[in-house]
Amino acid sequence: MQRGYALPVSHQLPIVGQPQPERADAARNRQKIIQVAARMIELKGADQLSLDEVAREACVGVGTVYRRFGDRTGLVFALIDERERVFQEAFMNGPPPLGPGAGAAERVAAFLTALVDRVVDQQDLMLLLELGSPKVRFRGPYRLYHTHLTRLLAEVRPAVDPRFLADALLAPLNAHLISYQRDERGLTVEAIKAGARTLAQALTQPRA
Predict the structure, then answer these.
(1) Which PANTHER family match (predicted)?
(2) Domain interval for residue 25
């Protein structure tokens, strides 16, 4: 069974444009921008998020926002950061079956069901992230999820490229499909999670 592990810094969720450590004034500006962006999303929806408008509402220069976060996707990464770090800690070092201590197959199923909850928790922001280019969409959280699943799948399906299997398991758990399944097909979150468990079991159970 796997023990907890620490991934390289490059695999952890980046807050785009954030230097470490921050000056006090820079930290205050960052927090103000994030709070304003979160409030705007709550009032208007994530698809209406505009960096220019965020800058005006936060009373900071537009250049400050762009230097800080790079683009809208960078700001969204910052908005999901806190909850994302809690999720990452849970599957890397938390209690089983999501964390270390359970078998690899069981952990794969637990991860996929937990990921459904993670996507639903901040669905509007996840939808926004998926509108970026593939280079953006498949960095940050996705890269970490893929690394985690690849390690687990290498234990249970060593004869198949675990990197491909990791992509195959993550593909149906994107925010746009989950949103469609809930809104148009009437699927409950529990039904989607049950489907994810079935998919995980199909790929990880020993073959005769």
Answers:
(1) HTH-TYPE TRANSCRIPTIONAL REGULATOR RUTR, POSSIBLE TRANSCRIPTIONAL REGULATORY PROTEIN (PROBABLY TETR-FAMILY)
(2) 17-70
Token code pair at residue 144: 């970490």
Give whole-number Cα distances, 51 to 72, 137, 145, 194, in Å. 6, 19, 28, 38
The answer to whether residues 156 and 180 belong to one domain is yes
Domain harbouring 63, CATH code: 1.10.10.60
pLDDT in tens, 52-97: 998 988 889 888 888 888 888 788 888 888 789 999 999 999 999 9
Task: Residue count of the chain, please give it.
Answer: 208
- Rounded to 5 degrees, φ, ψ at 57 are -65, -35
Domain boundary among 70, 88, 114: 70
Grouping H, G, I as helix, E, B as strand and the rest as coil, residue 30 is helix
What pTM value is reported for the model? 0.75
